[in-house]
From TrEMBL:
EC id: 2.8.4.3
Function of the protein: Catalyzes the methylthiolation of N6-(dimethylallyl)adenosine (i(6)A), leading to the formation of 2-methylthio-N6-(dimethylallyl)adenosine (ms(2)i(6)A) at position 37 in tRNAs that read codons beginning with uridine.
Keywords: 4Fe-4S, Cytoplasm, Iron, Iron-sulfur, Metal-binding, S-adenosyl-L-methionine, Transferase
MTTase N-terminal domain mapped to chain residues: 1-108
Protein name: tRNA-2-methylthio-N(6)-dimethylallyladenosine synthase
Gene Ontology molecular-function annotations: 4 iron, 4 sulfur cluster binding; metal ion binding; tRNA-2-methylthio-N(6)-dimethylallyladenosine(37) synthase activity
Species whose genome carries this gene: Saccharicrinis carchari
Length: 441
């Protein structure tokens, strides 16, 4: 069971690979398993609540059968301490290569139980990155490029769950991206807690994020298969205009930018310890719009942060009105143990947080609907991802990650990049009609 962000999803693919190599066989249901676990997310309380519900159920099963439980993922030290009393095996993601040895200690024989112990946390994460993932999808993949965070935003627990920033060797990243692209993967997402600070921890002994994107772009020109490369999540403090110029230069670099705002009020940003101003963010946004006018822009926003006033919320709404985002992931603030703001009184009521959430959601919808309606009549490339909820339809996303569906029952289209003519628009989705179908479908 995997909870949390895309990084946890990517981590789960490496866990699956290690378990396969250790001789474990995947079963269809929890009830059939003799070894079962969770990749947790201490960043959100709801995710931790799910962990406690699951382990309570699994521990009851131990009265009736042999069962070994494990937990990993993003864990605060306080959560990890409690989990040690509830789960049989508790390990951090960098300790994943040691999992076979841990299994051996519980009597689960496997060929990898004698793997050598790493000597330091850096060695641990390097060994982890060398684990070849067992990708969940045949056409979409996540590639981690760095781990940890040095920013210490006051609302965030990630520096305490993932540790300090460590960049993965660029040659490993580029090799993994090339292998995926040559195998026919259609989207590849570069992952990190702060992707655009990539390489800064290496003191000039590694390329930076813009240079990494340049090498990926050059790779795209060498490979015949069409694919799109995205990245998440960047920090405004490290976002430079050369990144936009490189994305504009290469067709394989997806024309969608995730650019977290968090708040449109200067005082709230200071209290969040974001280390950037609204004016600096605006300056970067103007450069983005000028250099990449075709790009869609997604953002993250927190409402109801400690002591946020109605006037400060209005400042955020005005920034949303100014930048007209294509998507905003709006979250109601909740204190997390370990984060600095946990020590502060949560002064905004849940009722007010819900009201503010509704205000910003309405503001977002106004602009997404206008943008989507302007797409009607245009022909766009689309990666078909799955069956749509509407019967007889398939759905996917554009190069800019706008969701679009179309009428078809041809399952061979799933995992292919096709062309659709946009015929209708809603607040958060499009509808289209088939224009071209690749020969392989």
């Amino acid at each position: 069971m995997t909870l949390g962000c895309q990084m946890n999803m990517s981590d789960s693919e490496r866990v699956a690979s290690v378990l396969d190599a250790a001789g474990c066989e995947k079963v269809e249901t929890e009830e059939e398993a003799n070894f079962i676990g969770i990749l947790a997310c201490s960043v959100r309380q709801k995710a931790i609540d799910k962990v406690y519900n699951k382990i309570a159920k699994w521990n009851k099963w131990k009265d009736k059968k042999n069962l070994v439980t494990f937990i990993s993922g993003c864990m605060l030290p306080s959560d990890k301490e409690r989990f040690l009393k509830l789960f049989d095996i508790v390990f951090t993601m960098p300790e994943l290569p040691q999992l076979p040895r841990m299994l051996g200690e519980y009597g689960i024989a496997n060929p990898l139980s004698l793997i050598a112990e790493p000597q330091s946390p850096v060695d641990e994460i390097k060994l982890f990155w060398k684990v070849k993932p067992k990708y969940d999808s045949k056409f979409e993949a996540f590639v981690p490029i760095q781990n940890g965070c040095n920013k210490y935003c006051t609302y965030c627990a990630v520096p305490y769950t993932r540790g300090r920033e460590i960049s993965r060797p660029s040659d490993e990243i580029l090799q993994e991206v090339r292998e995926l692209a040559e195998k026919g993967y259609k989207t590849i997402t570069l992952l990190g807690q702060n992707v655009n600070s990539y390489g800064l921890d290496k003191n000039g002994h590694e390329i930076n994020f813009a240079q990494l994107l340049e090498k990926v772009g050059q790779m795209g020109e060498e490979i015949d298969n069409e694919f799109w490369v995205y990245f998440t999540s960047p920090h405004p403090r490290d976002m430079t205009t050369d990144i936009f110029h490189i994305i504009a230069k290469y067709e394989c670099l997806g024309k969608q930018i995730h650019f977290p705002l968090q708040s449109g009020d200067e005082k709230v940003l200071i209290k969040m310890n974001r280390n950037h101003s609204v004016s600096k963010y605006r300056e970067t946004m103007h450069a983005l719009r000028e250099i990449l006018p075709q790009a869609t822009v997604f953002t993250d926003i927190i409402v109801g942060f400690t002591d946020e006033t109605d006037e400060q919320l209005e400042n955020t709404r005005k920034v949303m009105e100014e930048f007209k985002y294509n998507m905003a992931y709006i979250a109601m603030y909740s204190p997390r143990p370990g984060a600095a703001s946990y020590r502060w009184k949560d002064t905004v009521s849940l009722e007010d947080k819900k009201k503010r959430y509704a205000i910003l959601s309405e503001e977002l919808a106004k602009h997404t609907l206008t943008y989507n309606r302007a797409m009607i009549g245009k022909t766009v490339k689309v990666l078909v991802r799955e069956h749509d909820r509407k019967e007889g339809y398939l759905s996917g996303h554009t190069d800019g990650k706008l969701v679009i569906r179309f009428q078809s029952d041809n399952e061979a289209l799933i995992g292919q990049i096709i062309e659709l003519k946009v015929s209708a628009a809603a607040k958060f989705s499009l509808e289209g009609e088939l224009v071209t179908v690749p020969a392989e479908a």
